[in-house]
Structure formats: C-alpha cells, structure tokens
Amino acid sequence: MLLQSPPDLPRTAPKGVFITGTDTGIGKTLTSAILTKAWHGTYWKPFQTGLAEEAGDTPTVQHLTGLPADHILPPTYALQAPLSPAAASVLEGVTLEPEHLTLPHAPHLPLIVEGAGGLMVPLTDHMLMIDLIAQLGLPVILVTRSGLGTLNHTLLSLEALYRRGIPVLGFITNGPEVPENSRTLEQLGQCRALHHIPTLPETPKPHTISQIAAQIPSWESLW
Asked: Which residues contact 29 (CB under 8 A, 6 or more apart)?
C-alpha cells in the first residue's frame, strides 16, 4: 500500500462537497459550474481573490449554469489582489477569520463549495485551505489535469487529504483524455474517477456546460 488508507465516505449523502484542486488554474471553477448545473445545487466560494483583474468566479458560475440567483451564494471574503487570501488580506488591511467559518444555509442541496488555489494555500498565518476543508466537514472532489505531471500532483494531494482524515468522493480530470493516468490514480490513490472533462475553449458557453452536466452521475447515486 503506497498511500495511507483513505477515510470512509459517509453512508448517506452529506450536505455537499468541497471542490479543490492540485493547483491553481486547474479547472475548479469550470468543474464547480458543471456540478452545480448537474445537481441543481447551490454554489459558494468562501474566499475570492483577484477581483482587481476579473469579475470573479461567482458571477462566472452563475453565467455558465444559467441557474436562478438563489443557487449562488456570495463569497464571505472578496479580495482585490491576485494573491493567496493571506497575502491579499494583508495588503488590503482585511482581517480574515476562517476558523469561524461554518457551512451556510443552502437553498438547494447539495452545496458545492469551491476552494481557492490548492490544498496548501495559506488563508492566514495559522490556517491553510486544507484546514478549512477539514473544519467544514465535507467530502472532497479533487480536480486534476489529465496529462503529464498529474500522477505526482494528484497522489501528493490525496496523501495530504487522507492524513488529515478528509474523505474523498473522487477525482475529475480535465484536458486531453489519458485513460492510463486515470487508471493509475484509481489504483494507487485508492480513489475513483468520477468524470473526465475534455479540453474546452478558454471561454466555454453555457450550452457546453449543460451538455457535460447531463453526463454527470446523479448526486444520490454516488452514495
């Protein structure tokens, strides 16, 4: 056994799932939009940075899903600089208190929570993104690239999650399809491949998101 044994998943469907990735820019927002659309759930990104350069992921998900506004929750912390939450908050004089965050009311279950960056992104001097995941108590879907480098990055991420007792529902790859990598990750990572998202245009259209969402297994069938 190469990795620590994964924690058991809940026997019944939890309130939601936490979407994290092996890196920044890995496709978490795209995946979150697809899952929110597929499951008609509620989307929440508690930490948003980089608003000085873009509108942010929350309006992007609302546009891509075409769901009513009550399916989209605003970020708890919205920061301007394209940096980690810890670094951006210092620049802007904002005090972050992630240790007090709890799951918000979700008008439509499941709640799809999107992280910022990867697992080890600092939220404060004393708390990482992975600590927030453990605190919120949701199982994880890990977003990873499909090609070269994915084995190392994905297995490292799974090991970190398992060591903290965080259950992983599965992983979703994106990019060119490489079935051998997915099979290796399932075997060595003791984790199931939930779906593969093909290479999409830089700005995908809502109808493309709907087409992919229609291929996603139902929320209930995963438990």
From this structure: 57, 60, 61, 114
Token pair of 81 as six digits: 């600089």
Domain that holds residue 152: 16-217
Is 45 in the active site?
yes
Tell whether the torsion through CA atoms of 54, 60, 61 and 67 is positive or negative.
Answer: positive
Overall domain count for the chain:
1
Residue 44 maps to a domain: yes
User: Is the residue at 2 inside a domain?
Assistant: no
- Look up residue 5 and give its amino acid: S
Strand duo 122-124 + 47-48: pairing: unpaired
Q: Is residue 202 part of a domain?
A: yes
The DSSP secondary-structure symbol of 7 reads P
SS3 content of the chain, % helix, strand, coil (to 5): 35, 20, 45
Choice among 15, 28, 37, 45 that is catalytic = 45
User: Does 8 map to a domain?
Assistant: no
- The enclosing domain of 194 has a CATH number of 3.40.50.300
223 residues of the chain, pLDDT tens digit each: 578 899 999 989 999 999 999 998 899 999 999 999 999 999 999 999 999 998 999 999 999 999 999 999 999 999 999 999 999 999 999 999 999 999 999 999 999 999 999 999 999 999 999 999 999 999 999 999 999 999 999 999 999 999 999 999 999 999 999 999 999 999 999 999 999 999 998 889 999 999 999 999 999 999 9
